[in-house]
Amino acid sequence: MKKIVAKQNETIFEAGAKADSVYLVVSGEIGIFLPTNNSDKPDFILGENEIFGEMGVIDKSLRAGRADALSDVNLIKISQHEFTDKLSKSDPFITGLTRVLVARIRDLLKKTTKNEKVKNSDIETANQESDA
Question: Which of 1, 46, 94, 111 is 20 to 30 Å from 74 at the Cα level?
Answer without folding.
Answer: 94
